[in-house]
Amino acid sequence: MDISGRNLIRPGKKALCMVNGSFSDRMYKTLVNCGIEEILTKK
Fold it and tell me: What is the total count of domains within the chain?
């Protein structure tokens, strides 16, 4: 899950931030619930 998580977040998080901040924040919370907060923090 760590590897697939990075592939989804790396381009996805940045794109969502530029497209819609509220949706990005919502997606971030969803990812945190899945336990991917560490990857988001590092990248």
Answer: 1
